Write a sequence for this structure.
């Protein structure tokens, strides 16, 4: 009996909102810091397709709202590197941007999006084993790991037993599995945990910043936010504090700003540690494509880098803008808006 693929919206939410998420043995869950986002969020990809639901079936539209692949799938994921996992009845596999089936899956389940030309897959064994397929569906790395994370900067997280390490695209260990927890490489360094202390290694597995923090996040824009005893600050790649430890959470820098928490409200600081958007929101997670998603009064909306509300909080859930559009949910229905808050695709079931 096959293990059902990870449900995509949950998978993406885990990627976007999780602070330091581990790979589970029972199911593939991304190991990455909260700041992980798809690259080129500011760039408008003329060929980008967007997942939509209509009459309980999934299909795809372009950024003008035109239906490119008519809703016909029982399960569908966002496109990654021009390919998307779909399921229609008993048929399941990967399609291209024209809706053409590239390959079908029989003995394997798709377990994650494409990254750097490879996608993670899992076997139907109990417990499952994880490996990677190429763009033609051919096994590139045979399933042999207890869990994996997609490739980033040429390496992928892999789990054997209870130890994490990093493999290359041949499936060879580059950093031997010896860590309690890990995050994917970002800006040349990877966050790892040893004896419940967070530090950073380079691609050889050597420590660049020794494990010493109670908590930490990936490097982003040259800085990593770290915590010691409940106080947060930001370090450079030599481990020197650029923003000193202080009370209250500091998040990852994106587009020059980082979220902070003060008096149970979220705001933003700049790289000098100065408050530029006073804490006033119930939640926020950083800027992407010039706007930041915020939560206020139980609803989601968007602000600009000055803190001005550009799209009023009105959505039950929402994602960052990507290629000029953002996913939003109202009453459990998925829609797409542009940066003026206009619907390109109204919420549909």
């Amino acid at each position: 009996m096959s293990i059902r693929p990870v449900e995509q919206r949950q998978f993406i939410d885990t990627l976007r909102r999780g602070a330091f998420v581990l790979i589970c043995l029972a199911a593939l869950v991304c190991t990455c810091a909260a700041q992980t986002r798809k690259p080129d969020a500011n760039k408008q990809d003329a060929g980008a397709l967007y997942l939509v639901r209509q009459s309980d079936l999934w299909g795809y539209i372009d950024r003008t709202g035109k239906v490119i692949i008519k809703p016909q799938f029982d399960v569908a994921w966002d496109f990654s590197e021009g390919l998307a996992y779909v399921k229609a009845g008993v048929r399941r596999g990967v399609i291209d941007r024209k809706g053409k089936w590239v390959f079908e899956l029989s003995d394997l389940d798709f377990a994650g999006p494409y990254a750097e030309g490879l996608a993670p897959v899992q076997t139907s064994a109990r417990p499952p084993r994880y490996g990677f397929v190429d763009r033609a569906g051919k096994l590139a790395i045979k399933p042999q790991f207890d869990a994996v994370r997609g490739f980033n900067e040429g390496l992928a997280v892999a789990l054997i037993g209870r130890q994490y390490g990093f493999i290359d695209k041949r499936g060879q260990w580059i950093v031997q599995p010896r860590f309690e927890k890990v995050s994917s490489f970002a800006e040349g360094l990877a966050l790892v945990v040893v004896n419940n202390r967070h530090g950073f290694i380079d691609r050889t597995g050597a420590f660049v910043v020794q494990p010493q923090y109670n908590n930490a996040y990936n490097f982003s824009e040259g800085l990593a936010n770290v915590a010691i005893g409940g106080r947060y600050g930001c370090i450079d790649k030599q481990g020197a504090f650029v923003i000193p430890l202080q009370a209250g959470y500091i998040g990852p820098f994106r587009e020059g700003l980082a979220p902070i928490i003060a008096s149970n409200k979220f705001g933003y600081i700049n790289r000098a540690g100065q408050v530029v958007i006073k804490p006033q929101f119930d939640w926020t997670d950083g800027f992407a494509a010039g706007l930041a998603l915020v939560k206020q009064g139980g609803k989601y909306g968007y602000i600009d880098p000055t803190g001005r509300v550009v799209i009023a909080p009105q959505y039950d859930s929402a994602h960052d803008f990507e290629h000029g559009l953002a996913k939003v949910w109202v009453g459990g229905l998925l829609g797409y808006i542009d940066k003026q808050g206009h619907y390109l695709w109204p919420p549909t079931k």
